[in-house]
Amino acid sequence: MSTRDIVFVALFAALTAALGLFPPVTLPVIGVPITAQSMGPMLAGAIAGARRGAAALALFVVLVCAGLPLMAGGRGGLGIVMGPGGGFVLMWPVAAFVIGFLYERGLETLTAWKEALILVLGGVVLTYAVGIPWIAAVARVDLAKAAIGSAWFLPGDAVKVVLVVLVARAVRRAYPTLRPR
Amino acid sequence: MTPSIPGRSPLHRCPPGPKILALVAAGTALFALPRLDLALAVLGLTGWLYRLAGIPARLVLAQVRPLAWILAVLVLVQLALDGWQAGLLVAARLVALMLLAGLVTLTTRSSDLIEALQRGLAWLRPLGADPAKVGLAIALTLRFIPVLAAITAEVREAQRARGLERSLVALTVPVIVRMLKMSDDVAAAIDARSYDPDRAGD
Amino acid sequence: MIEIRHVGHAFGERAVLRDLTLDLTERRIAVVGGNGSGKSTFARLLNGLLVPTHGTVRVDGLDTRRDGKAVRRKVGFVFQNPDNQIVLPLVAEDLAFGLKNLGLPKDEIARRTDEALRRYDLLDLADHPAHLLSGGQKQLLALAGVLAMAPEVIVFDEPTTLLDLRNKRRIAQAIDGLSQRAIVVSHDLDFLAHFDRVLVFEDGRIVIDDRPSAALPAYVAMMS
């Protein structure tokens, strides 16, 4: 990694932390609070690419484990990873990698719909695929219940995917950072 | 940035590596052996360790509070399905783990923990992760968080002047673009100060 | 001595510097010019942060293209925005960053860090997070971090542009007080009045190269 890559990694780790500083928004009707933080892996993948994005989120998770209060609401420590939500958090680096990889692969032919699909795949499908069984294991509930509980966050995720598509497209025009694979 | 509380107890003096290993061991044991007596014993031991470290009860509660509603739901579900013992087991195990994890965090300075992590990551070297680079990235991240917060506040003010304060896109795009531009300068500044990414730091 | 021979630089298709040839030997050299005139690019060529697309830049005989690392040890660089230059979270840590990169022994690092902090009244703030410093203090920290590495020349890229009047003066005084040679890109003409030489940039060329008493009035006339 060049110096510039290291700086990028640190910036996106810091960005993910900064997203946790936004006050959570409570969705109307459903009433589930959503935080902007899970946009971190999506933005890192879509803007910094696979390698740097994954490294940024891995760094973020390591710092959280080290006890820095970087998770939304000023939480931190190994308890985050060991707790029920740990599966989601641990998947963030993987999500960033997959999103970045697919963005780089299709860079020349990206449409808003394709981008949304990539973000849903990496940022939602993949993270839930590990996050839900993790809840089931840690909390000893069966998979179906864990899945239903997690489904409350899907509308929030949909909003985030749309936001990231808009942001990533605008940033790419203003300051291109990715190279096609 | 350091959530740890100062102290001179044996727990504070213990280096971070063994503490983390002990935590991982406890976590594994609790899940491998789902027994109520074991969970309660670990919970009791954890309470004793908190006393040993001289951590006030207020902080103990603060460790568990984020879990409160999840715990409540879990215990209710387990009670309804499998009886009170299963509910108690789940609750005791979760609380014990969160408290133990919190204990490591509270009794270790984050700079020590980061240093231990940096050393602990040395085995990643064959995979291409250089501990010296990891160290620089960690330090840079801690440096950037307040800078990003300041940029965000500035941009938010500018957008408010234009009546765009409710648009997250109008806020995020300029923040990220400024951040990316800044990264060029920061990388140049690091190079200007004789940083050599190919020479592993000492 | 810095020797610049037939240097041109382009970012992609856009030429920013065109065929410059000159030697920089004076103790205080000012670089002025409008936005986009090429002066910042010029500054970055002097310590090898940028390598010219044409021609060569040599510092004491060292080519920035081949010996970038050695050149950067001789030529320090202070950026416009200290926030982009401060690398590590704590004041003393950041000061030591460059020294560690030089591979100096621990006690030497401690001695030089202490000296630099003392020089700019930052000693009490050694264990402070750098982001809590004022703008002027941050720029002093950036300067101290470069100075501690004992370069022979320091290049400043608009070091006072983001500062208020009082801090502009503090930085100007700090630059005046340097025993090293300094090359300063600035819009602050009063500060440059007692320099030894002024280079005026326009459209990638040096259009005026003279003593301040002649160059600065001509520059002002040119810009109005």
Automatic annotation (TrEMBL), chain A:
Keyword field contains Nucleotidyltransferase: no
Any one cellular-component term (Gene Ontology): plasma membrane
UniProt GO molecular function: biotin transmembrane transporter activity
Keyword GTP-binding found: no
Membrane-related topology note: Multi-pass membrane protein
Ranges that cross the membrane: 6-32, 53-72, 78-104, 116-139, 151-171
Localization: Cell membrane
Matches recorded under InterPro entries: BioY
Record protein name field: Biotin transporter
Organism expressing this protein natively: Methylobacterium tarhaniae
Automatic annotation (TrEMBL), chain B:
Major subcellular location class: membrane
Source domain of life: Bacteria
Keywords attached to this entry: Membrane, Transmembrane, Transmembrane helix
GO terms for cellular component: plasma membrane
Species whose genome carries this gene: Methylobacterium tarhaniae
Cited CDD domains: EcfT
Family designation: Belongs to the CbiQ family.
Name of the protein: Cobalt ABC transporter permease
Entry's transmembrane regions: 20-50, 62-81, 87-106
Any Pfam family hit: CbiQ
Record lineage: Bacteria, Pseudomonadati, Pseudomonadota, Alphaproteobacteria, Hyphomicrobiales
Subcellular location: Membrane
InterPro entries assigned to the protein according to its UniProt record, in alphabetical order: ABC/ECF_trnsptr_transmembrane
Membrane topology: Multi-pass membrane protein
TrEMBL record, chain C:
One Pfam family it belongs to: ABC_tran
Protein name according to UniProt: Cobalt ABC transporter ATP-binding protein
GO MF term (any one): ATP hydrolysis activity
PANTHER family assigned: ENERGY-COUPLING FACTOR TRANSPORTER ATP-BINDING PROTEIN ECFA1, HEAVY METAL TRANSPORTER
Family the entry assigns: Belongs to the ABC transporter superfamily.
Source domain of life: Bacteria
Organism taxonomic ancestry: Bacteria, Pseudomonadati, Pseudomonadota, Alphaproteobacteria, Hyphomicrobiales
Domain ABC transporter: 2-222
Key words, A-Z: ATP-binding, Nucleotide-binding, Transport
Gene3D superfamilies for this protein: P-loop containing nucleotide triphosphate hydrolases
GO cellular component, one term: ATP-binding cassette (ABC) transporter complex
InterPro entries: AAA+_ATPase, ABC_transporter-like_ATP-bd, ABC_transporter-like_CS, ABC_transpr_CbiO/EcfA_su, ECF_ABC_transporter_ATP-bd, P-loop_NTPase
PROSITE patterns: ABC_TRANSPORTER_1, ABC_TRANSPORTER_2
Coiled-coil stretches noted in the UniProt entry, renumbered to this chain: none
